[in-house]
Amino acid sequence: MTLPGGYSDTKPVTQEVRTIAIQAKAATQTKLGRNYETFEAITYRSQIVNGTNYLIKVKTNNGYIHIKVYKPFNGNTEFKAVQEGQTLGSEINTF
């Protein structure tokens, strides 16, 4: 159950979230200093604020990462942070 103002439970990825993850790919690669051939959104959590915060589990050719992305209601997707060292089974926690 989601608390008001909190993040949702983990959900299977949607086409919209796949697109948001791809929009954050270049910034993620720059932050980590590497290029990914594989960059596939798997699951996500979201939080409605003045826009939407997304925590997205992404499968890469080096394993799994979690990315945090903000999408304002009217505006461009903004990469915020990345966590390395994740697994398919690791929970997507706030960071």
Description:
- It holds the Pfam family Cystatin.
- InterPro entries: Cystatin_dom, Cystatin_sf, Prot_inh_stefin.
- Its main location: cytoplasm.
- Belongs to the cystatin family.
- This is Cystatin domain-containing protein.
- The chain is an alpha+beta fold and 95 residues long.
- The protein has one domain.
- It has 1 helix and 5 strands; from the N terminus they run E-H-E-E-E-E.
- The chain has one helix at residues 15-32, and strands spanning 11-12, 39-49, 51-60, 63-71, 78-86.
- A 5-stranded antiparallel beta sheet has the order 1-2-3-4-5.
- Strand 4 (63-71) and strand 5 form a beta hairpin.
- 22% of the residues are buried.
- The mean pLDDT is 94.
Largest sheet: 5 strands, antiparallel
**Overall number of domains:** 1
Instruction: Write down the overall mean pLDDT.
Output: 94
> Could you tell me how far the N terminus lies from the C terminus, measured between alpha carbons in angstroms?
20 Å
Task: Provide a compact summary of the structure.
It contains 1 helix and 5 strands, in the order βαββββ.
Task: Give descriptors for this structure.
single chain; cysteine-type endopeptidase inhibitor activity; 95 residues; Cystatin_dom; five-stranded antiparallel beta sheet; alpha+beta
How would you summarize the topology of this molecule?
Elements: E1 11-12, H1 15-32, E2 39-49, E3 51-60, E4 63-71, E5 78-86
Antiparallel strand pairs: 1-2, 2-3, 3-4, 4-5
